[in-house]
Amino acid sequence: MKKGRFALWTSIRRWIIRAVLAVVGLWLAGIVLFSFLPVPFSAVMAERQLSAWLTGDFGYVAHSDWVSMDEISPWMPLAAIAAEDQKFPEHWGFDMASIEKALSYNERNVNRVRGASTLSQQTVKNLFLWDGRSWARKGLEAGLTLGVEAVWTKRRILTVYLNVAEFGEGTFGVEAAAQRYFHKPASRLTASEAALLAAVLPNPIRFKANAPSGYVSQRQQWILRQMRQLGGESYLAQHKLK
Fold this sequence. Notes:
2 strands, mainly alpha, 11 helices, about 0% strand, two-stranded antiparallel ribbon
């Protein structure tokens, strides 16, 4: 009897190890392949689509249209950096000063959690992992972020981020967002439109680019000021991001 249980546990453990190795292998392959290939879909897109189907929402479609950085208005990457990660060209995936500030803030405000994820971390989370907060996910995110930073250029990270970021219900990527909200390609986005899209990034389900609240409009204006302070389009050229 004991031998049978031991054999069963050994078999289960073997399959668990194989499954873990298979997932790690897929992640590593993804890091290498997506350093130059377009991303067909992200883990968060798959999660949203599956969740919709499980709740009986068969009309939901997680939609994205891949575009290269050359097909994106320079205002959009500048707006994303201004809004989400102004130290993006300088760090290796983590903004330690922002992390320390977030930890200090969260200790004082237990009911409101402040994040400190860089664009690199957000790209990894959207592309390879699941939504939500947990130490397990943050640990995986940290390891994958180091891998992405080691293999991809900053320009590539920014390109993938803008193609997988969620801008609204079922709307992923800047091209789909530009078409949905402004009826134009991403290449023709103005500074104001790019700032508005960036303004909803913290919570694209709650915040609406097509019906901006007072807070979103204020955030849009703040992002525009930050874009000017960074140096406008010359900032992207300086850091080889466009």
